[in-house]
Amino acid sequence: xxxxxxxxxxxxxxxxxxxxxxxxxxxxxxxxxxxxxxxxxxxxxxxxxxxxxxxxxxxxxxxxxxxxxxxxxxxxxxxxxxxxxxxxxxxxxxxxxxxxxxxxxxxxxxxxxxxxxxxxxxxxxxxxxxxxxxxxxxxxxxxxxxxxxxxxxxxxxxxxxxxxxxxxxxxxxxxxxxxxxxxxxxxxxxxxxxxxxxxxxxxxxxxxxxxxxxxxxxxxxxxxxxxxxxx
Length: 231
Known about the structure:
The strands form three sheets. Strands 1, 2, 5, 6, 10, 11 and 12 form a seven-stranded mixed beta sheet that branches. The protein has a three-stranded antiparallel beta sheet with strand order 7-8-9, with no helix packed on it. The chain has a two-stranded antiparallel sheet with strand order 3-4. The protein is built from two helices and twelve strands. It is elongated and about 125 Å long. Helix content is 29%, strand content 20%. The protein starts with 9 loop residues before the first helix and ends in an 18-residue tail after the last strand. The longest helix has 60 residues, at 10-69. It has two domains: 4-69; 100-213, no CATH class. The chain has helices spanning 10-69, 153-160; strands spanning 100-109, 112-113, 122-123, 128-129, 132-133, 141-145, 164-165, 168-169, 172-173, 180-185, 191-194, 207-213. Residues 49-75 have low confidence and may be disordered.
């Protein structure tokens, strides 16, 4: 009180008004800071959730691809062959008296046997199949129409729509610590290393073709159960 006898003067009133205004400004700033902190927490939390969801989705996609491509369970067949001519091979209804030669592909990735899916080269909705195909009830087996035409492993992978080279099989690329090797059986069923272009490996009757990606401890054996392989 600055007036006589402790009376409140206009100066006191102005001072009190300024103090109240300052308190209101401080309160307002505090509210704004609190709101900003809450907003940042919400954004950070939302970002964290989004990152977690993205990781989960990517993991599911990777797992789905690996599960299907490497034979973890039944998956819808995805192949490049949908009826068009591939590598000079046409999709057609085979003659009733057709003769077939049978081969077998053993594919190993990271020490585990994977699957060459049944149905490659078969286009059911068009009622045709290619002269080289994997029978619907025999994954890893290869049936080829016998005749004057010769077939190679590259044809099978082209029908499948998967890469194959001396440096890659499916999505697996070879490097210093992930070797890619091939073995092929002879007429007596003995497996021997193949060092040429794997796409050029010929497919002949009762032949076993082994593909080994990062699988140095695997000791494959030739396939022998040839009865009733083709559809």
